[in-house]
Amino acid sequence: MEQSQPRPSSSSGGKPQDSGVLSREDFDGGPVSIDEVDTGLFLGNLTAATHMETLRSFKITHILTLDSVPLPQHILEASFLTTKYIQIADMPREDILQHLEGCVDFITTALAQQGNVLVHCYFGVSRSSSTVIAYMMKRHNLDFLPAFELVKAKRRFVQPNAGFVSQLKLFRRMGCKIDPNCQRYKIHRLRLAGEQMRKAKILPQSFHSVVRPDPDITRENPEPIVFRCRQCRRVLASKSHVLEHKPRDRPPQEEVTSSKVDQPQEQIDNPSGTRVLEQLAERIRQSSLGSPSHEGAPKYCRSILFVEPIAWMHRIMLNTQGRLYCPKCEQKLGNFSWINACRCPCGETMTPAFYLIPSKVELSKAVQNVQTTV
């Protein structure tokens, strides 16, 4: 992580030499702005974080920075300060969620040590306020809106951007921690990976974890419910790999946006028979999967099986879109796209989309050794 360098002295009257390194001294954050949101917890702007008199006046012992550039070196090296730096821009598509848990822990530790902590970004409006809201949600067991209003009452112009608001709500839904098994979190990570694929045309190593291990490889505790290739019965996905969605009516054609949306090839090849087959398949699924444990459960759509990317899917890390083939018998199973949305026959869309055609796979309850065509 790049550290800022001291600004060359200009006391001789000459201009500072341009080292080519972007440093925090190159910016002006405006007047000092700082507010106490909770006992010992302050929210402010860059100027407050770089003004020694302000830091000493408010007895600041810890500084949490969320910005594109770190604090000046003389602040970072101050003997009375403990600092933490998160490099992040104030953009809705930035992933602040991955940092929230660590930031909340930093604030909690600082306050537990009877310290005073200043959380800041450039203006103290979006990035830093998002972190303080996350802390308030966890500390006081609040949903997003009450926590936001509590912070806003102390600092009237706080306003996380729309993307950060969505991530804060997800953070709360997960219990103010990262739950890798939460479906919404999986989709969040996939969308971030899709953005990277759109830019680089290759999946960065930092996102390789979104591609799940091949469930056909023997593991100590394999999941009891799996999806197999209907032709060769090779295990393709576990139940936990499925990204569930509830069916909804297809939107009218005029409401469909101009952005590219892929339709499953089976619909295109045989549009007239698709509905009948879907209805018949649904009846079969309900009768075969119906049990006391399923009666009260929400009815999820099975017209298309959206799944997480899985290791057997050939070249998905190197291509933005393509077809999915069984790794054993090479039968076509579905399609994938990191960059375009796929619309299910029920009207729901998914982006990125990795889907299996239901007629090509079967559900296997391994414990009872029962297979059911999906």
Describe the protein.
The protein is 30% helix and 18% strand. The chain is an alpha/beta fold and 374 residues long. Strands 1-2-5-3-4 form a five-stranded mixed β-sheet. The chain has a four-stranded antiparallel β-sheet with strand order 7-6-15-16, covered by helices on one side. A four-stranded antiparallel β-sheet has the order 9-14-11-10, with no helix packed on it. Helix 4 crosses helix 5 (127-140), helix 5 (127-140) packs across helix 6 (144-154) and helix 5 packs parallel to helix 7 (162-173). The two termini are 49 Å apart.
Keywords, separated by commas or semicolons:
Protein-Tyrosine Phosphatase, Chain A; four-stranded antiparallel sheet; 2 domains; 16 strands; Metal Binding Protein, Guanine Nucleotide Exchange Factor, Chain A; alpha/beta; 374 residues; five-stranded mixed sheet; single chain; 11 helices
